[in-house]
Design a protein that fits this description.
By secondary structure, this protein is α/β, with parallel strands linked by helices. It is built from eight helices and 16 strands. A six-stranded parallel β-sheet has the order 2-1-5-6-7-8, with helices on both faces. The chain has a six-stranded parallel β-sheet with strand order 10-9-13-14-15-16, with helices on both faces. Strands 3-4 form a two-stranded antiparallel ribbon. Strand 1, helix 1 and strand 2 form a beta-alpha-beta unit. Helix 1 crosses helix 8 and helix 4 packs across helix 5. It is globular. The structure holds ribose-5-phosphate.
């Protein structure tokens, strides 16, 4: 098996290669220093893949990385790979899994359709849509849980309790709490707009406790900031935010000052990346057979 990492998932690709003892095929992402002046992408495989099972690792975010993914998948196929497994750690454009209004694009399906052109199967993690959509993708697709990684990290940080900021994250907090060996609770969140959320008042047993807020995605940090303020007002001693995908857009850094620490995985590399999901993806790749 050989691993090819896209430019946004290079360190995760190396970590997965170590876990699976597969070799890395290096990629050149520029033809000339500085790349193309118009921003177009370039890829070149720097090693052979003929007859190999290749695992291509690349998040489809931000937009140019989607094009890069497609170029890499096409180049791997043209170079004669026998089997191509796509590992898309963060499935960008995964939010829309339904057509709410006539004429809308179902963006998760659009991306999956293009991945399926060259790939035989897909592994992703905490897709922002209902994971049921994976059953309707035009290639075999599996959602790999990042919660074991989050749970391990929170266990070693010695948190007392986990909190889901909304019902959507309840399943995640529950899974992480099993691994961390601590109880969990949840809040009811109402989204007012893309930047504002409201949390229903609820008594939480957090006085003097070290609490971790667990979510799939941190985008603007609005959800986390609102939950953290609620925890502080109820006497929490220390508050950390833990997420699988750290997008950190807009005023996220400002909002996250409401927390003592922020922990994100390496599905999207950032200064908050403190835990790797390589063991989870390596196990899922092995399970494909
Ligand atoms: C949706 O509800 C997700 O689980 C996250 O809570 C949401 O994407 C976080 O967004 P933001 O950081 O902008 O509040």
């Amino acid at each position: 098996m050989k691993i090819v990492g896209g430019s946004t998932s290079g360190s995760l690709a190396k970590a997965i290669a170590r876990e699976t003892t597969a070799s890395i095929v290096d990629v050149a992402f520029e033809k000339h220093g500085g790349g193309f002046p118009d921003g177009e992408q370039y890829v070149r495989l720097l090693g052979p893949v003929k007859g190999d099972h290749v695992v291509l690792i690349q998040s489809t975010h931000p937009d140019p990385r989607i094009v890069e993914f497609l170029l890499l998948a096409d180049a791997i196929r043209d170079a004669g790979a026998r089997r191509l497994t796509a590992v898309v750690p963060y499935f960008g454009y995964g939010r829309q899994d339904k057509r709410f209004l006539e004429g809308e694009a179902v963006s998760a399906k659009t991306i999956a359709k293009h991945i399926a052109l060259d790939c035989d199967e897909l592994l992703t993690m905490a897709i922002p849509a209902n994971p049921q959509i994976l059953q309707n993708f035009p290639l075999p697709a599996h959602d790999v849980s990042g919660m074991p990684a989050i749970g391990r990290s929170l266990k070693s940080a010695k948190v007392d309790v986990l909190l889901a900021p909304d019902r959507g994250a309840l399943r995640l907090a529950k899974e992480a709490s099993t691994i961390a060996g601590v109880p969990f609770d949840f809040l009811e969140k109402k989204r007012i707009d893309s930047y504002t959320v409201k949390i229903e008042p609820k008594a939480l047993a957090v006085k003097g406790k070290f609490v971790a807020i667990v979510d799939d995605v941190i985008s603007t940090g609005g959800t986390i900031a609102t939950a953290a303020k609620e925890l502080r007002s109820q006497g929490a001693r220390r508050v950390v935010a833990a997420c699988v995908h750290g997008l950190f857009v807009d005023k996220a850094e400002e909002n996250l000052k409401a927390c003592d620490d922020v922990i994100a995985t390496d599905t999207i590399q950032s200064k908050f990346t403190k835990v790797s999901v390589a063991p989870e993806f390596a196990a899922a790749i092995r399970a494909l057979g």
